[in-house]
Amino acid sequence: MITASIVAYNTDREQLCHVLRCVLCNSVACVYLIDNSPNDALRVMEKFSMKIRYIHNANIGYGGAHNLAIREAMELGSDYHAVVNPDIVFEEGVLEALAVYMDAHSDAGWVMPKVEYPDGELQYLCKLLPSPADLILRRFFPASVGMRARDRFEMRDSGYDRQINVPFLSGCFMFLRVDALRKVGLFDERFFMYGEDIDLSRRMHAVYKTMYYPEVSIVHAHERASFKNRKMLRVHIANIVRYFNKWGWIIDRERRRANRACIEALKGQGRG
Fold first, then answer.
1. What is the spatial distance between Cα 187 and Cα 177, in angstroms, rounded to a whole number?
2. Could you give the count of Cα atoms lying within 13 Å of 104 in the half-sphere of its Cβ?
3. pLDDT digit string, tens, across residues 147-179
4. Contacts of 20 (CB under 8 A, 6+ apart)
5. pTM (predicted TM-score)
6. pLDDT score of 227 more than 60
7. How far is residue 21 CA from its own chain's centroid?
8. Gap between the Cα atoms of 12 and 239, Å rounded
9. Could you list the residue range(s) of the whole structural domain that residue 197 is in?
10. CATH number for the domain including 138?
């Protein structure tokens, strides 16, 4: 059984209809629409399909909202749960293909497909576990600064043309094994928004494989809200500080071990 969740916050209805169509054209038992908006104007989306379960609540953050859906999916008996951003687009059969992959690889707890921009350009969303320098460089300096360090962090030398066990997968689209979530835990709700995907990814990677699977692709119209909005930038910084307070700023042996293992595996494949 496959379930999915989408978190909305004053989300454009046309965009929301689009992503709901994408999810519903796949074999899902239920789509949880968690609405963190101040009002329940998006409740009309329930009429879109009998499979939509609309939940309106006080804004408890991105991870906390998805946790509401994941807990219900667990009670429903879901095998796999897809966490989907509203700005994601994909075709019929994508979720089924990811489920087939997971069925064949019981050691995988999380799989991410190839992610492209609407113009077809590849998004480099396979990453090593970040150091503070990695995130500062990526967020506050132009792309021309520290290119080698950026390329290493985003694993660009891997070619993005093969399956890779990645320490940090993007949270824009997560296809998760529900039993794995039972073992490693759900999103840490102390992260209101940003950082929750790094945290869950490293916890999952410590127990299961977290796989990049380029045989399946999706489209992500990435808006990078924290690059355009000062309030979102403050939220971003606060939650990244929270992440490093949890896992370590300078001394993080697990980060070093996971990153080294990933790089050595790529070298063994003739990459990296």
1. 14
2. 9
3. 788 889 999 989 999 999 999 999 999 999 999
4. 6, 31, 33, 45, 48, 49, 52
5. 0.93
6. no
7. 20
8. 25
9. 2-268
10. 3.90.550.10
How many helices (H) does the chain have, and how many strands (E)? 9, 11
Sign of CA dihedral 77, 81, 87, 89: negative
- pLDDT, one tens digit per residue, over 48-69 is 899 999 999 889 999 999 999 9
The pair of three-digit structure tokens given for residue 161, joined into one six-digit string? 């043309």
> Residue 256 pLDDT more than 80?
yes
Residue linked to tokens 């590849």:
122
Tokens of 48: 């879109």
Scan for tokens 């379960």, then name that residue: 53
Burial class of 171 by CB neighbour count within 10 A (0 to 12, 13 to 18, 19+): buried
**C-alpha R_g of the chain:** 18
Identify which of 85, 125, 150, 91 has the alpha carbon closest to the alpha carbon of residue 211.
125
Domain count, the chain: 1
In this structure, are residues 176 and 80 in contact, taking their beta carbons and an 8 Å threshold? Answer: yes
User: Can you say whether residue 81 is alpha, beta or left, with left for phi > 0 and alpha for psi between -120 and 50 degrees?
Assistant: beta
The string of DSSP codes covering 2-19 is EEEEEEESS--HHHHHHH
What is the separation of C-alpha 32 from the centre of its chain, rounded to a whole number of angstroms?
Answer: 16
Residues 6+ apart with CB under 8 A from 62: 7, 187, 191, 192, 193, 196
Terminal Cα-to-Cα distance of the chain (whole angstroms): 37
> Which amino acid, residue 99?
A
Q: How confident is the model at residue 226 (pLDDT cuts 50, 70, 90)?
A: very low
Integer angstrom CA distances of residue 170 from 40, 85, 174, 226, 257 = 29, 11, 8, 16, 20
Model confidence at 145, pLDDT cuts 50, 70, 90, reads low
DSSP β-bridge partners for residue 88 = 220
